[in-house]
TrEMBL record:
TPR repeats lie at residues 182-215. Residues 40-207 form the Ancillary SecYEG translocon subunit/Cell division coordinator CpoB TPR domain. The chain crosses the membrane at residues 33-55. It comes from the Bacteria. InterPro entries: SecYEG/CpoB_TPR, TPR-like_helical_dom_sf, TPR_rpt. This is Tetratricopeptide repeat-containing protein. SMART domains: TPR. Pfam families: TPR_21. It comes from Desulfonema limicola. Keywords: Membrane, TPR repeat, Transmembrane, Transmembrane helix.
Length: 228
């Protein structure tokens, strides 16, 4: 403690500090190249880290900008030539974004957008492939998960692969998220009818009436049940 030190010790402490500072300065002067190099490395690391962060933001922005541009081009072509031709003429644009920005938000969004475009063009094989890869990008609690599962169900139905369509619609029904659950119940009723499983089809139609009385499909299903 300073209060317990005598005058001689107190006078000696500044000399020790000056001596240490002098030694430190002499060391820096003597080894200035090495010290400046070390300092330069530290500053370079700071610049690189900051640059990576900035670059990351820039890359995200760029990926979304390219996706928006590709979508705008698709929409124009779709109006002029229809979904099939628009798909053919924009697939390189979307694939380039997906390949280059696979880990970026824009790249993942482009994959979903391109899957929708493939579906509209009735290229169901391509749609299935893209939707499955999009599903891998999502966490289990993602709000988009049921939308992708539903899209896979519709895509497999487009391929007349009703067993796989049933599989993906059932994943929604059995999941925790309520989004599109009534749609999935309705779609399972349709799919089982196409599979000529009429009892199973009616089971899901009745499930819709009992559990989702506010569903947009309710009037249609009530009419179907009453006619059966």
């Amino acid at each position: 403690m300073a209060g317990n030190k005598n005058r001689k010790q107190l006078l000696k402490e500044p000399d020790q500090f000056i001596s240490f500072s002098t030694k430190m300065m002499n060391y820096i002067i003597k080894h200035k190249i090495a010290v400046l190099s070390s300092t330069g490395i530290v500053f370079a690391l700071i610049i690189i880290i900051s640059g990576i962060r900035y670059f990351s933001i820039q890359e995200e922005n760029k990926s979304f900008a390219l996706m928006e541009k590709a979508l705008a081009r698709y929409e124009t072509l779709e109006k002029e030539k229809g979904p099939e031709k628009a798909f053919e003429e924009t697939q390189k644009d979307f694939q380039s974004i997906i390949d280059q920005y696979a880990s970026r938000g824009g790249g993942r969004a482009a994959r979903i957008a391109f899957a929708n475009i493939a579906f509209q063009a009735k290229n169901f094989d391509k749609a299935v492939d893209l939707y499955k890869k999009a599903l891998e990008d999502l966490s289990d609690d993602s709000s988009l998960k049921n939308m992708i599962l539903s899209s896979l169900g519709y895509s497999y139905e487009g391929k007349n692969d009703y067993e796989n369509a049933e599989k993906y619609f059932n994943m929604i029904v059995k999941g925790k998220d309520s989004l599109l659950k009534d749609d999935a119940v309705f779609n399972l009723g349709r799919i089982y009818a196409k599979m000529e499983k009429q009892d199973k089809s009616m089971e899901f139609y009745k499930k819709l009436v009992d559990e989702y009385p506010e569903s947009m499909y309710i009037d249609m299903i009530n009419e179907k049940i009453s006619d059966s």
